[in-house]
Amino acid sequence: MTGIDVRAVVAARGVDVAFDVAAGEVLAVLGPNGAGKSTLLHVIAGLVRPDHGVVRVGSRVLTDTGSGRHVATHDRRVGLLLQDALLFPHLSVLGNVAFPPGSSRPAHWLAEVDAADLADRRPRQLSGGQAQRVALARALAAEPDVLLLDEPLAGLDVAAAAAMRTVLRRVLGRDGRSVVLVTHDVLDVLTLADRVLILEDGRVSETGPAASILARPRSRFGARFAGVNLVAGTAGDGGVLHTAWGATWHGVAGADVVAGRPAVALFDPAAVAVYRDRPSGSPRNTVEVVVAELDSRGQAIRVRGEEQPDGGPGLAADVTPDSAAELRLVPGDRVHFAVKAQAVALHPGA
């Protein structure tokens, strides 16, 4: 199997991306709704023709706008698995898996996804999780070089999604094929992805190993996805971050942070204390925020502020239910978030 290289501009959808996926690698694509994630998959699958660009799998050129080359979807050896399994209702499970052109060893692939006992059933007799396993077997039976997964677990209940992840973890990348996984679920990234690519406004805002993105995100969406606070700005001397709107943050700077260069301050919502009145003689970083929303997070209540002045996600604080009851917070309240400098990590910006 071989890797994939993509360069695509789709002007009508505001998409302008370039990235690659190595053979046997699982790339998770994240981003807000409308960022261009599905468009990216459709370009690879041949369902959307870019205005400019090239799609190459190994030595095979699937799309090249410069030469006018565009291989038809059914000849691309690209498998696509969607949230809806889209099984043919008039065929048996085995018939569905054997249906695609080039399909081989349908019984083998049903066994690979733990669905051999479903071979004689009709799609209407399957649960959502069973139908997705059959759809995966159908995609793999065509022996694709590239497998595209567009939120295949989004419609499943917790138990079915967990079972499907187990199957995916076993079969993805095992035969050296490249995999692109669009998801909104951090569990998918943690259990399935080797690398993460984040799309914002049709552009790649961040990419890197999955563990690094989750631990040290550099983009707004990456920070919200990972559940941490991110403040963007310019690094100063001595662990200082200066924002474009005049705020100063103090933290612990990594060795790769360079004064005068873009940097981000990261800190956990659990490290943030919330006060009605500005605290005196306490943590070094104190900012006033307007409460935008509150929601329950298990044993904590998350208090999220309105967007930052540069459009970044609102800062969040996790407080105990007792503290939330004492503060009596509602959206629109003005409060102060405070966090110690030792709890703020500074890293190079995206």
UniProtKB/TrEMBL annotation:
One of the GO BP terms on file: molybdate ion transport
Occurrences of domain ABC transporter (ranges): 1-226
Keywords: ATP-binding, Cell membrane, Membrane, Molybdenum, Nucleotide-binding, Translocase, Transport
Domain Mop, residue spans: 280-348
SUPFAM superfamilies: MOP-like, P-loop containing nucleoside triphosphate hydrolases
Coiled-coil segments: none
Pfam families for the chain: ABC_tran (PF00005), TOBE (PF03459)
GO MF terms held by the record: ATP binding; ATP hydrolysis activity
InterPro entries with a match to the protein in the record: AAA+_ATPase, ABC_transporter-like_ATP-bd, ABC_transporter-like_CS, Mo/tungstate-bd_C_term_dom, Molybdenum_import_ModC, Mop_domain, P-loop_NTPase, Transp-assoc_OB_typ1
Domain of life: Bacteria
SMART domains cross-referenced by the UniProt entry: AAA
Keyword ATP-binding: yes
Keyword Kinase: no
Protein name (record): Molybdenum ABC transporter ATP-binding protein
Organism name: Mycolicibacterium flavescens (Mycobacterium flavescens)
Lineage: Bacteria, Bacillati, Actinomycetota, Actinomycetes, Mycobacteriales
